[in-house]
Amino acid sequence: MDYDKLSKIFYKTDSKTHLSEYEKRINSYGSYKTNLSIRPFRKEKLMNQEETLFFVNIDKLVKLYEEVLTNSCTIQLAVSKLPTFAVEPYFHKLIINEAQSNNEIEGVRSTKEELSNVLEHIHDTKATAKKRFLGMMKTYNYIDKLEPLQSVEDFRKLYDELVADEIPKNKQPDGKYFRAEGVSVTDGAKVTHRGIEPESKIIEKLNEIIYFLNTSGIPDLYKYMIAHYYYEYIHPFYDGNGRTGRLLVCSYVSRKLDRYSAITLSYAINNDKPKYYKALENVSDLHNKGELTFYLMDMLELLSSGQKAIIEDLQLGLAKAQRIKEYISDLDWTNDNLLKDVLHIQLDIMVFAGESRLLTNAELVQVLGVTAHKINKVMAELEERQIVHLLKQRPKTFAITDAFIEGIFI
Q1: Which of 85, 86, 122, 387 is the right S-S partner for 382, CB 3.0 to 4.6 Å?
Q2: 332-408: CATH class
Q3: Is the domain 33-311 a CATH 2.120.10.70 member?
Q4: How confident is the model over 248-263, as a mean pLDDT?
Q5: Are residues 194 and 234 in contact, defined by beta-carbon separation less than 8 angstroms?
Q6: Cα dihedral angle (328, 331, 335, 337), rounded to 10 degrees?
Q7: pLDDT digits (tens, 9 = 90+) for 36-52
């Protein structure tokens, strides 16, 4: 027998069968109950009844959990094969993709060039003092080092660091920490959810998330996805809930899996927004009675799809890196080992991180442990041979020409 949504059973059968199936699910040995409750949503308003959030750990859900864990191991193994100097630039490429996706989901405009510039100068206080998205890029950069939530003030702190500068004045929090008034979520045509109110209730519900994360015995990935849903259900701010909520779940995922898996969630969601929004809405459906099973499957499928995109990207990059290694070893027009090393490094960076994260001359000095004079001399020869071209004057950065790269992979 297929495991269907309770809402589907309600419409296919009758209310008695529907209630019987619900009782069977929530009280089964394979069921996990949470300490979290919601008021279902119907006809553009919250119902008065409360439902306890629960899920049944069916086979498909267990397999998805296993798949995500396996993907994480595959990613970590592939990353271990990257050249040391390419690891952080590769991670930065993923950060930029994720941050741009997180913004796009909410209709916030940002370019990869803009985000790359912020990330590049993240430790330069003068250069980034008034930069847009500074807090977001810092948070992603240290995603695996974020502390677990300890108090409701931490939710406000995350909001202030991530999105406060991007929110219009009329949508800024007007309560002690969060919003003082009600808020509606729409899909452009109709209201799909109404946030919890008043602020005292928001604070109570956010404290429930903290307690749930710190004490529940539910398997971790399920727990993190449930906390994400509950945060979006509460909707503590007028604007910025999606971006803060997704980054929140990413910070917890990074501690269970790896930092690469963690920062692919928004990218995957952006590629299938209808699935994500439908997953959230289905939990609140009156006839689903707080069941999270299908929501968890959808979220793990999205996470897995993001992981698979990283795996494919890494495997392709490693295959190209092997071709580059063979090309450099067969190079017959020079005996200059430093020139070969510089060429090898910049080609590898191009493959794994793209032109936006090429090493500057100063960084090449650090990586190779030679003088700036020697690097400048090598670059002058490569430029004369039309192998590289000047990309930026300050800091001085050269890029490999397209024609040269194409010649390697013919």
Answers
A1: 387
A2: mainly alpha
A3: no
A4: 92
A5: no
A6: 0
A7: 999 998 877 888 899 99
